[in-house]
Amino acid sequence: MRLQHNIALVAIGSTLLFACSQPCPPAPEHFTHSLLSIPPEADANIAVVEGFLNACVKADTVAMRAAMDPGYYGILETTPIDSSSVEQVISDWRRIDSTRTDQKLTTNAAEGNRYASGKWQGDWVNYWGEYKATDKATGKSFVVPFFFDAQV
Questions:
Q1: Are 64 and 90 in contact (CB under 8 A)?
Q2: CATH number given to 31-151
């Protein structure tokens, strides 16, 4: 019985040692596909979106305007009535800033994509994060997970 136990331990240990010592093949630098790819500018695009989101949290209207195209329209495909223009976005974040303190963003994940054709053609950033703040009226802190999708 003890011999079987020792043989099992040696077999498992050898398997783990062999499996962990083999190098993984190198990953391609940038994924490419005829419809969707990761552009070389993905990191820069993510930085632009992160800068915009931080400008919103700080209610930095100059930085917000600089990050948005003059024709910007925050489209909510399923509920167009909730969509916003540049001025509406700025107005909303100024109002939010007046009612909250300790606003912070945490990045959970971000990716840059390039759509080759179709309705959504161009460079896009998908951004997952958490928005943290304290309500001035109640003093209560809260955390809201969010997803932000932006064409760059």
A1: yes
A2: 3.10.450.50
CB 126 within 8 A of CB 149: yes
Bridge partners of residue 122, in order along the sequence: 115
Question: CA–CA separation, 43 vs 66, rounded Å?
Answer: 19
pLDDT in tens, 4-63: 655 655 556 566 555 555 666 666 666 667 788 899 999 999 999 999 999 999 999 999
Coil/strand/helix, residue 59: coil
* 111 HSE (CA, 13 A, CB side): 10
This prediction has a pTM of: 0.73
Residues 6+ apart with CB under 8 A from 27: none
Do residues 97 and 68 make contact, with C-beta atoms less than 8 angstroms apart?
Answer: no
Tokens read off for 30:
């940038």
- Cβ neighbors of 15 (< 8 A, separation 6 or more) are none
